[in-house]
Specification:
Arc Repressor Mutant, subunit A; 2 domains; alpha+beta; 9 strands
């Protein structure tokens, strides 16, 4: 089975009023869309992960025409449900994706800059199916090929490349906040919790991080920035 990871990007104002409203909000951000369900009546239901001020997100939903229903998380980071009316561009994009014999890997990660917004998406299927879906992305959207190749389990869960001992350390470090910004624990505290020396924990963290990064990069030996407008 083959895969293609692409970035689909658009200028603000092209895709959907709700996307524009979220982009314009200074203190709330969308990180990823975890699922979109086309309802068949010109509307979509979406589950997305947001961070920031959920009061602002509520105002965005309330103030955007076409938003029919929503629920926001109680904390400042979490998942929101939203039911909204579609647009011609969204209909064309989802038709290109859902009407071909490919599998879309969720979630879709948002990538943005000052002028454009976009998503990083991975499609899986045969060479012919992948070619068909990329060729039918609607005009007006930019498509950049990030990488392509044979699909492996590293695409779905790079943690599978870790040994059992490495997974235990990684889970402990994540739960303790070692990878938070700023960090909520130190290597010394992790060493004390696991009953090993500081030097040992430093070495093990470097090795597991190297394994995770290598697992990710093995599926992308070279970057191909072919772009189609």
């Amino acid at each position: 089975m083959r895969y293609a990871t692409v970035i689909l990007s658009w200028e603000r104002g092209q895709l959907h009023p709700l996307d524009d409203a979220v982009a314009a909000a200074a203190d709330v951000h969308i990180d990823a869309t975890h699922y979109i369900n086309p309802m068949g009546d010109g509307t979509h239901v979406e589950l997305a992960r947001f961070r920031g001020d959920m009061g602002t997100l509520t105002d965005v939903f309330e103030g955007t025409p076409g938003v029919l229903d929503y629920e926001v998380p109680r904390t400042n980071n979490g998942f929101a449900y939203v039911h909204y009316e579609s647009t011609p561009m969204m209909e064309a994009l989802l038709m290109a994706v859902f009407e071909h014999k490919i599998v879309l890997q969720w979630p879709l990660e948002f990538v943005t800059d000052a002028e454009t917004r976009g998503i990083r998406a991975t499609f899986m299927g045969s060479d012919a199916a992948l070619s068909n879906v990329t060729e039918e992305i609607p005009e007006g959207l930019d498509l950049s090929l990030v990488r392509t190749g044979e699909y492996t389990t590293a695409h779905s869960d790079p943690v599978l490349a870790l040994t059992e001992k490495q997974r235990t350390l990684f889970e402990t470090a994540v739960e303790a906040g070692y990878y938070e910004v700023p960090r909520e624990t130190t290597q010394g505290e992790l060493a004390d919790e696991l009953g090993v020396t500081h030097g040992t924990i430093s070495d093990r963290l470097q090795r597991l991080e190297s394994t995770l990064l290598t697992s990710l990069l093995q599926v992308a030996p070279a970057r191909d920035d072919k772009k189609r407008r």
